[in-house]
Amino acid sequence: MTDPRAIYAQREAEASKSADSWRARFDRLAHLRMGVTLALAAAIVAYLIAPGAQMLLIAVSVVLIVIFIVLVVRHSSVRRREIWYREMAQVALEARHRRLRRWEEFSDTTAEPPPHHPYADDLDVFGHASLHVLLGTTCTRPGADMLTDWLLAPASTEIVRRRQSAVRELAPAIDFRDELQAMGRIAGPVEPKQLQLLLEWAESPAWLLPKWGPRWLAVVLPTLMLVTGGLHIFAVVPYLWIIPLVAAVGVTKRYNRRIHDDFTRTSSGDSGLRRYHSLVAHIADGRFEDPLLAELRESLIRGGATSAESETSVESAAPAEALKRLFRLVELSNIRYNPQVHYVWNLATLWDIHVLVRLERWKNQHGAALRGWMTALGRTDALSALAGLAHAHPDWAFPEISDAQPDGAPRLEAKALGHPLLAPEIGVRNDVSLGPPGSLLLVTGSNMSGKSTLLRAIGANVVLAGAGGPVCAEMMALPVADLRTSMRIRDSLEEGISYFMAELGRLKAVCDAASAANERPVLYLLDEILQGTNTAERQIAARRILRHLLDQRAIGAVTTHDLTLADAEDLKERAVLVHFRESVEAKEGGPPISFDYQLRPGLATSTNALRLMEIMGLALPENGG
Fold it and tell me: Which residues of 241-349 form beta strands (DSSP E)?
C-alpha cells in the first residue's frame, strides 16, 4: 500500500477497532464492578441479620473488597488503552483530512502573523487554510513554537540540509510519529508560562546549598527537639525542648519566604514537565541513523553535565529518570498546601529546608540541561511535523539548496511547481524560473487566471524549503533567500494609513532589503503593484521600482494587468514574459469562462473584465441609462 490516503484510512480503521474492543472490555468490567458492589452490600446486610455467620461473611467481604480494588485498577488500565487507540485513530483521521485539504475539519486557531512580517500574511503561513494547519501535527509547545520560527525565517544552507536528512528518515517512521503525536494529545496543552518560571529557577544559581548554617540547623534543631522532648516525657529535664523549638521558629521565619518562592517556581512547571515526560522517554527509546536525530536522541539519553558545585560525583541520570526525581521532590514540597499539617511538620523537622537542598542538588546536576531537553523535544517534534508532510506527499521533492549557482548568480528553478495548500488532485503545476539578478519574471493574464496563485505557490514553497521540508514540485533548486512580498495590502483607519500609503510602505521595505542584500539575495514577489493611483503615475512609479530591483542582488516575479509595463526598452530586455490564458465559450450548463492555469511564454493578449461583469449580472448600458 503506497497511497497515503489508503494508509491513513487503514490505520484509522485498525485503531478504531482496537478502541472499540477495549471499550467492550471497559463495559464488562463496569458490570463486574457493579456486581461486586451489590454482592458486598448483600454480605453487609447478611452480616447484620445473620449473627451466626459473621466470620464467614467477614471473610467474603474482604475477598470482595480485594476483587473490587483489582477491578478498579484494571478498569483504569483498560480505559487508558481505549483512550490511546482513540487518539491514534484521530491522528490518522486528521492526517487524511490534511492530505485531502479538508480545512473545515480543523477548528483550532493558529498563531497570528507577526505585524509587518515580510511575507507571513501574503503567503498564508497562518490562518484557517494555511501552512501552519497543514503542518499542524506538533504535539508540544516547544515544537509548535520552533516550527513557527522555522516558517517565519529560513535557516542557513547547512541547517536546511541537516533538517532535510532528518525529515527523510522520519517520513516512513509513521508509527514513531503517530505515537509521539498521540502521547502529546493525551498529555494536553502546556502554556509557555508553565515552564518559564521553572526554567528560570533551573538556570539560576543555588542559594541555599552553599549556606552551611541553615543546612546544619535543619539537622541539629530537629534532633535536639527529639532528644529534649524525650527528656521531658521521661521527666528528666522538663521544657528544654522549647529552646530548639524557638530556634526552629526563627529559622523558618528567616528562610521560608524565599524557600516558598522557589517552590512556587518549580511547581509551576511541574505539570507541564509531567506531560512531556512520556514524550522524552519515547524519543530516547527511538533508533535513528540520521546524525541530527541521533544527536537529539543522545541529548535525551545522557544527563546534564554535573556542576562543579554539585556535591555528588555520581554520573548524571538520563533525563527521563532525572525528571522523575524532580517530580518526587516537587510532590514533597507540595505539603505546604496543607497548612495545618505543614506548619507543625515543618517546625518539627525543618522540612522545607531539607526539600529545597535536594531540589538545588538536582538543579546543580541537571538544571543547566533542562532547557536543552525541551529544545531537543521541540526540534524532534517540529521535524516530525515536516516528516508527516513528506509522507503524505511522496511525489514532492526535497529542494536542492545552494548558496549560489556555478556562475555565482542566485537562481530559483522549479519543475512542475504547485501550490502546497491546494489538494494535489486539483492543483495545476507549472515550471518556473527566477533569476539571475538583473532579470525578472513578468506574469500577465486576465482576472482569475492564476497570476496571484502562482506567486503564492512560489512563495509558499520557498517557505517550506527554508524550513527544511519538502516542496510541492518534481524538482526545485534555489538559494537561501530573504523572501519579500507585496500582495495583500490593507489600509488602516486606526493608524490613518490609506491603501496607497500602505502599499508604498511594503514596496519600500522590499526595495530597502534588496539594496542591503549581500551574500543572501532577496527574492521578491509583487502582485499588481501600485493599484491605488492613476494609470499614468502608476506606470512611471512601477517602472522605477522594477529598475531599482533589477539593479540589485535580487530575483523575483511581478504580476500585472498593465500590458504596457515592460514597454520601456531597458525593461523589455530584462523581463521574462509569461502569461495565463482563459477560454471563453458558450457552454450549456457550464461556465462561460474556463481557465487551465497553464503558464505560457509571452505577453497576455486577452482580457475578461467585461465578460465577468456580464456573468455577475452587471452588464449595464454604456450610457448609464
Answer: none
Indicate whether 308 pLDDT > 70: no
CA distances to 91, 186, 533 from 86, rounded to whole Å, are: 9, 10, 57
Locate all alpha helices (DSSP H) within 123-235, ordered by sequence: 131-134, 141-152, 157-170, 174-187, 192-203, 212-233
Cβ-based neighbours of 387, under 8 Å, separated by 6 or more: 166, 167, 168, 169, 170, 171, 173, 177
Q: Could you tell me which of 135, 176, 172 has the C-alpha nearest to residue 1? A: 172
Cα distances from 343 to residues 120, 262, 340, 576, in angstroms, run 55, 18, 6, 80
Angle at the Cα of 94 from the Cα atoms of 92 and 96, rounded to 5 degrees: 75
Percent of the chain with pLDDT over 90: 63
Distance from C-alpha of 109 to C-alpha of 570, rounded to nearest angstrom: 47
pLDDT for 97-122, tens place per residue? 999 999 999 987 667 778 889 999 99
Q: Go through the chain and tell me how many residues it has.
A: 625
Cell matching residue 67 = 476483587
Using CA atoms, how far residue 625 sits from 610, 611, 617, 618, 619, in Å, is 17, 19, 15, 13, 12
Does pLDDT of 574 surpass 70? Answer: yes
Interhelix angle for 351-362 vs 319-333, to 10°? 160
Is residue 2 predicted with pLDDT exceeding 90? no
Q: How many CB atoms lie within 10 A of CB 233?
A: 10
310 or 54: whose pLDDT is higher? 54
Q: How far apart are CA 581 and CA 33, in angstroms?
A: 71
Sign of CA dihedral 489, 492, 498, 504: negative
Spatial contact of 574 and 439, defined as CB atoms under 8 Å apart = yes
How far is the C-alpha of 250 from the C-alpha of 243, rounded, in Å? 11
Burial class of residue 544 (count of CB atoms within 10 Å of its CB; 0-12, 13-18, 19+): exposed
Chain segment 535-570, per-residue pLDDT in tens: 777 788 888 999 999 999 999 999 988 778 877 888
- Dump pLDDT digits (tens) for 224-273: 999 999 988 888 888 888 999 999 999 999 999 999 999 998 988 777 78
Q: Rounded mean pLDDT of 182-210?
A: 88
Rounded to an integer, what distance in angstroms lies between the CA atom of residue 575 and that of residue 546? Answer: 10
Give the closest residue to 405 by CA, choosing from 574, 232, 521: 521
> Cell digits for 461?
514553497
- Contact of 420 with 476, CB cutoff 8 Å: no
The answer to whether 140 and 190 have CB atoms below 8 angstroms apart is yes
- What gap in Å lies between CA 347 and CA 579, rounded to an integer? 83
- Residue 589 is given by DSSP the state T
The overall average pLDDT reported for the chain is 87
Residues 6+ apart with CB under 8 A from 58: 47
Torsion, Cα 535 538 544 548, to 10 degrees, reads: -140
Q: Does residue 601 have a cis bond before it (omega within 30 degrees)?
A: no
Output the pLDDT for position 1: 57
Convert the pLDDT of each residue in 359-405 to its tens digit.
999 999 999 899 999 999 999 999 999 999 999 999 999 999 986 56
DSSP-H helix ranges across 405-562: 451-467, 499-516, 535-550
Nearest to 579 by CA among 565, 564, 597: 597
> What's the predicted TM-score (pTM) here?
0.87
**Cα–Cα distance for residue pair 287/293, rounded to 1 Å:** 9
* Buried b / exposed e along 367-377 (16+ C-beta atoms within 10 A): bebbbebbebb
